């Protein structure tokens, strides 16, 4: 039982990333009808927003500390972060320690701007083009963005730790009545799942209960009629592209303590996220979220030692096998709509 609970927790953790990226992908496809293969790059850029803010907060200058000496007996040179000068040592250390959560505030406007520039500068020219053209141009854009990140940040992963308060693990076993230390799970992975649930809930609430969201949903269902009512639906869809980029970026920001950012992390998640979207049903937001968590849990169970001893490598292909089975029985996916990508 403890092994099952642990794998479910692992699946929810991984499924959170899949669901957030797939949610952004589906928002873009549902509003603009664009198959955006650059969406994984937005996840990567969000992760490097956290790296960038961490580096900014640790910028320092050199002072001479008369209370310390080097190996020659001379007064030692000490690097002092600028945040110490501005906020004091205690507050400055706390700000540096909480760099990843603070990166959320930094990443939202950056990702909104990146999404706006991407949509207005390139993708708007491909609205009426075939989906194959959209895939080619956005995949090329993803490669360009990946190489830009590689040029400025290097090819090696960059460790970006979580705050010290969340570096430990929670004893789920003791909380559920099992023996202590049977089910130990990192705090930050729990936080990531809760964070993903909040973002997903916020997106659905925004679309369901705000006037802006209602107009967007109406435009997704019948863009021409909404336009005839005098509503500039194109502007609203551009804003939704920026919001989808922000969702992907926030997913990347909070994932940095789990997987150290590297230039190819966007591509690593992109293909799996598209599989999630297809399994959930193209254009279906609930389907994307449901498929994300479902496939994350299945992948987690397929990674168990007992399973791999019988079927080596199953964890590498389980998502694709499930996708094949679902699409054979439900060609539109779990919650897909009739007529979407069927022309």
Automatic annotation (TrEMBL):
Record's keyword terms, sorted: Amino-acid transport, Cell membrane, Membrane, Transmembrane, Transmembrane helix, Transport
Bilayer-crossing regions: 16-35, 42-64, 95-114, 190-216, 237-258, 270-295, 307-328
Domain of life (superkingdom): Bacteria
Locations listed in the record: Cell membrane
Coiled-coil ranges from the UniProt annotation: none
Bilayer topology annotation: Multi-pass membrane protein
A Pfam short name: BPD_transp_2
Gene Ontology biological process terms in this record: amino acid transport
Record's GO cellular component terms: plasma membrane
GO molecular function, one term: transmembrane transporter activity
Family statement: Belongs to the binding-protein-dependent transport system permease family. LivHM subfamily.
PANTHER family from the UniProt entry: ABC TRANSPORTER ATP-BINDING PROTEIN (PTHR11795:SF442), BRANCHED-CHAIN AMINO ACID TRANSPORT SYSTEM PERMEASE PROTEIN LIVH (PTHR11795)
Name under which the protein is recorded: LIV-I protein H
UniProt lineage: Bacteria, Pseudomonadati, Pseudomonadota, Alphaproteobacteria, Rhodobacterales
Gene designation: livH_5
């Amino acid at each position: 039982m403890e092994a099952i609970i642990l794998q479910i927790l692992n699946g929810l953790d991984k499924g959170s990333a899949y669901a957030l990226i797939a949610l952004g992908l589906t928002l873009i496809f549902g509003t603009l009808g664009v198959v955006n293969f650059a969406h994984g790059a937005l996840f990567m850029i969000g992760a490097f927003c956290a790296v960038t803010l961490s580096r900014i907060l640790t910028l320092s200058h050199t002072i001479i500390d008369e209370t310390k000496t080097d190996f020659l007996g001379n007064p030692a040179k000490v690097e002092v972060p600028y945040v110490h000068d501005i906020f004091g040592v205690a507050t400055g250390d706390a700000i540096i320690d909480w760099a990843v959560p603070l990166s959320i505030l930094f990443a939202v406007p950056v990702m909104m701007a990146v999404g706006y520039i991407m949509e207005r500068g390139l993708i708007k020219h491909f609205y009426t083009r075939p989906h194959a053209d959209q895939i080619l141009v956005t995949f090329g854009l993803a490669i360009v963005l990946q190489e830009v990140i590689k040029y400025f940040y290097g090819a090696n992963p960059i460790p970006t730790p979580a705050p010290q308060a969340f570096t430990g693990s929670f004893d789920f076993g003791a909380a559920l009545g099992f023996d202590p230390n049977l089910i130990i799970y990192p705090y930050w992975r729990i936080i990531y799942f809760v964070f993903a649930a909040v973002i997903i809930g916020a997106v659905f609430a925004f679309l369901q209960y705000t006037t802006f969201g209602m107009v967007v949903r109406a435009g997704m269902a019948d863009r021409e009629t909404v336009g005839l009512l005098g509503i500039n639906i194109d502007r609203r869809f551009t804003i939704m592209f920026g919001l989808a980029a922000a969702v992907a970026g926030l997913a990347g920001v909070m994932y940095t303590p789990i997987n150290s950012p590297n230039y190819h992390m966007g591509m690593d998640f992109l293909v799996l996220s598209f599989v999630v979207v297809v399994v959930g049903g193209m254009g279906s937001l609930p389907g994307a979220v449901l498929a994300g968590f479902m496939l994350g849990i299945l992948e987690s169970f397929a990674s168990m030692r007992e399973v791999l001893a019988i079927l080596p490598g199953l964890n590498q292909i389980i998502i694709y096998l499930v996708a094949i089975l679902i699409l054979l029985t439900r060609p539109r996916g779990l919650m897909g709509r009739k007529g979407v990508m069927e022309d």
